[in-house]
Write a structure and sequence with these properties.
Blueprint: E1 7-10, H1 12-19, H2 26-38, E2 42-46, H3 47-61, H4 63-76, E3 78-80, H5 84-96, H6 104-116, E4 120-123, H7 126-131, E5 135-138
Parallel strand pairs: 1-2, 1-4, 2-3, 4-5
Helix pairs in contact: 1-2, 1-3, 3-4, 5-6
């Protein structure tokens, strides 16, 4: 699969802050999203992240907001289904970074990003910084321009 150079993977923490108006990062995330769409960035996520985020939004913000979020993501974000090789690579990452608390969803994200050549993560999760292979917006910079 070939994605545009200006592609960024959005993770659960980023999506949750975007939908939760009370989140302390909400306004920053909204500005980043607005900039991304205006600048022609393609937002990418995985089915694992969708499942994780939907469960989080459902539990904390309710059914209606979760359904609205799911509809928006399904129609507005490029959804990637991880491969068996991504799953194997995720296990390698977890075993190789035994001193880190990477979740399987985190590691799947890293594997997908490696495979697809995505270098920008939209995330509030320090694990993306700890992995050390991506630019993490907004934790390392608030700009998508590298």
């Amino acid at each position: 699969m070939l994605l545009p150079r200006r592609s960024a993977l959005s993770d659960s923490s980023f999506f949750y802050a975007a939908v939760n108006r009370r989140d302390r990062y909400h306004l920053v995330i909204r500005r980043i999203l607005e900039s991304a769409y205006k600048s022609g960035w393609v937002l990418v996520t995985t089915t694992f992240i969708i499942a994780e985020t939907h469960a989080l939004v459902l539990a904390r913000l309710g059914r209606d907001i979760a359904a609205k979020w799911l509809e928006g993501v399904w129609h507005g974000v490029h959804v990637i289904r991880p491969t068996e090789e991504d799953e194997r690579r995720a296990c390698e990452i977890i075993f190789g970074y035994a001193d880190k608390d990477f979740s399987f969803t985190d590691a799947i994200s890293f594997a997908v990003m490696e495979r697809l050549g995505i270098t920008v993560a939209l995330s509030l999760d320090e694990h993306f910084v700890q992995f050390g292979k991506f630019t993490v917006v907004p934790l390392q910079t608030e700009s998508l321009e590298q």
